[in-house]
Design a protein that fits this description.
mainly beta; 14-stranded antiparallel beta sheet; 2 helices
Length: 271
């Protein structure tokens, strides 16, 4: 689950029938997921998983997060080749009427040498509907393009990974498109791998002058904690199911305040 800021379409672009827009969006989301599932059967894949999160944020913040989706499905994949590594994910969020938003992220580390420094490129995007299907207000999550050098530390036993990058960030269709983002990513699997943790921290500049906001910087942290059931003696090794939680910690992203929203989560890893 990943948070994004939004940009309202001009009124003349909102003349479409709300039901038609929602159907079109769902078809595109389905096609995206099918394409990703097909792609995961080719190439040197190292890790791919499907996650389901039950979000508790709207219950903890009934006023500030009353429109927050309760269910999010995430499919993510990471692969490594001799020229670097690739990571991408697609999030689909659901309310009672079905899928109401999707966002995606694609990143590539280009590395033609043995040093732990790579050239990093990244794209973020997405779409969301407000009060669907009652409303025809379509909202686009700001397309963002980022690039910079990144540094990665991988411990010898491969149980600890840390990565950091200070990125130039271009946010499309915003009054101040030229920005920066400081991002760190980490993974840790101690001992026999029964428990593992992953996460990221992002701090970036993005002027937000919407009523009630008037902010300049945003912060997002999303640690995940997993219990990998196939590491238990009574569980078969090919039952790649994990149970855990993601904690979404944000400031000026979901609301102009601190939000700490945990989830109850299941993850299936494809081997």
């Amino acid at each position: 689950m990943r948070g994004r800021d939004v940009l309202f379409y001009p009124p003349h672009k909102l003349r479409y029938n709300a039901r038609l827009i929602i159907i079109t969006m769902k078809r595109r989301l389905l096609y995206s997921l099918l394409a990703i599932l097909l792609c995961t059967n080719a190439g040197p894949i190292n890790a791919q998983n499907l996650q389901f999160h039950y979000d508790l944020g709207r219950y903890l913040y009934p006023e500030a997060q009353k429109e927050r989706p309760t269910i999010t499905a995430t499919i993510e994949q990471q692969s490594i080749d001799r020229f670097g590594d690739t990571f991408y994910f697609v999030d689909m969020s659901f309310l009672q009427q079905g899928a109401v938003s999707a966002n995606w992220k694609f990143m590539r580390n280009l590395r033609f040498w043995q040093a732990p420094v790579a050239w990093h490129v990244r794209y973020d995007g997405g779409i969301r509907f407000v009060n669907a299907p009652q409303s025809n207000a379509a909202i686009s999550m700001n397309d963002a393009f980022m690039t910079s050098a990144s540094y990665t530390y991988l411990r010898g036993d491969r149980r600890l990974m840390l990565s950091a990058a200070l990125l130039y960030k271009y946010i499309h269709l915003t009054p101040q498109p030229h920005n920066f983002e400081l991002c760190t990513v980490w993974k840790y699997a101690p001992g026999d791998g029964l428990f593992s943790a992953t996460g990221f921290i992002s701090f970036w500049q993005q002027v937000d002058k919407r009523p009630g906001r008037n902010t300049r910087f945003k912060l997002m942290m999303q640690p995940q904690f997993w219990c990998n059931l196939n590491k238990l003696e009574a569980i078969p090794n090919d039952l790649n199911l994990s149970i855990g939680s993601e904690i979404r910690i944000s400031r000026n992203v979901d609301a102009p305040q601190w939000i700490v929203a945990p989830t109850l989560a299941l993850k299936w890893s494809f081997r």
